[in-house]
Amino acid sequence: MESGLPANLCTTPIRSVTNAYTTKRRRVSLAAVDLKSELLAEPSSATLRLQPTGDRFIPCPSDSQVPLNTTPRTRRIANVFGLTDDKVYKFGNLNASAGDSSEYNHLRSNFLQLLTTYPKVSPTSCVANLGSRKQFILALDGPGVPSDPFAYPLTWSRRNLIAVACGKDVYYQDLDSRVISHLCKITKNSHGRPTSVQWADESPTDIAVGTTLGSIQLWNSETQKVIHEWRDEGWDAVGGMDWRGSVLAAGLDGGAIEFYDSRDWHTANRLEMHRSKVHGVKWSPEGNYLASSDQQGVVYIWDVRAGKNLSDSRRMGGRIKHGAPVKALSWCPWQPDLLATGSTYPDGKIRVFTVKSTTPIPQPLQVISLNTAVTSLQWSPHSKELLSTHGTAWDPKAPRSASGRPVAVHTSLANSITVHSYPSYRRLLSVSAHTGAVGHSCLSPDGTMIFTICPSEEAMKMWKVWSAPERPVRKASSWDRFSIR
Predict the structure, then answer these.
(1) Can you supply one Gene Ontology CC term for this chain's record (predicted)?
(2) Is residue 318 very low, low, confident or very high in pLDDT (cuts 50, 70, 90)?
(3) CA atoms 168, 173, 178, 179: torsion sign
(4) Gap between the Cα atoms of 147 and 153, Å rounded
(5) Which of 98 and 72 is assigned the larger pLDDT?
(6) What does the alpha-carbon distance between residue 485 and residue 482 come to, in Å, rounded to a whole number?
(7) pTM (2 decimals)?
(8) What domains, with CATH codes, occur in the chain?
């Protein structure tokens, strides 16, 4: 060798070569070492076949542990030692092909599955119930159901009775015994056809029937006789109805809201703030507020606390304006200050308001743009979720019709049942419910199922959406053996 260095310094050429007798680094020539014959020997074909090309479990370091390309000289040294060719393992895409190392890919994928954590799904959520089945559990025929998309032909009582308006008749079925009964038939032409039905809360055997000519009849399902009958002077068709104790609120086509007491033959009160057909009326769970909506997309919230009678001066805030008619109204059962509204074509949005708003015109806390007609809304009493039913869908970016309105298209939300989470309002699932628009829905007494109705199909379907939480088992206590006299 040309250098006077000891021979033991060249026995391990891959390590950095250092002068052992001085702190100053000196250049070392490797010409005397025959590296090409030893390190650059042509590998055999058998070695190439057995050598894996996959990443295996190599972590994600940088391409090289030392900067081997800083100078031309270090590049030459790296070429000599084979540190820049394909024989050095480098981190690659886990999903990329790894040549003959398919066994390592299988081990890698299994290992990653062990590290993956999935969010825990609540047993009361729609994901664990409707999401696992996505099928209705009962279907009923409803020949002659009202074709009006703003009708309320379906209602579910606290005694598990489902009633439906068909033609001039009203039928109900006991879902426990599956017995179908005929409640009544509107025989007088001056009364019109039944379009809205609503079971009473205090007396679950009584049901209110509203007609197209302003007649509201209160029937008893056990005796099948009329208890009371009220008549609007303007013969306006009856829209939505809702009970608060013994008081029934009913929206009329003329824009008025009338209140009837089941203990009295006369009209209890009347509100006349709306300027178009009143499609929806809904009492809050505690009965402190009343929400109403109309054809022009105007929503009012009325304050009836402290036992005060409703009047036009009891209106809270100004007009809450929407871009389309509003039928769907729903108060949250576990947060009574929240009100959800749903607009139809051509707005197609869900808005959530709070009665605690201090602004003159309440602003929505959340707006969910769906580009689909919202026909009904249901808050879950068991989980923080909001269900909506839908009709026609449209694409706002598609060319419009000659009238300037969006053209209907088929999407996953059209004619569907959709559930949103709270407070993120993320869409949890969407299930196609009918071949036509879902006209209306109602919630079961236990808050776990809904019934939907489709006028074009003349059919109704029952869906299991949520589950009630399990009641904790109370442990026996020693104090149970004793009592105070």
Answers:
(1) anaphase-promoting complex
(2) confident
(3) negative
(4) 10
(5) 72
(6) 10
(7) 0.74
(8) 34-115 (no CATH), 130-464 (2.130.10.10)
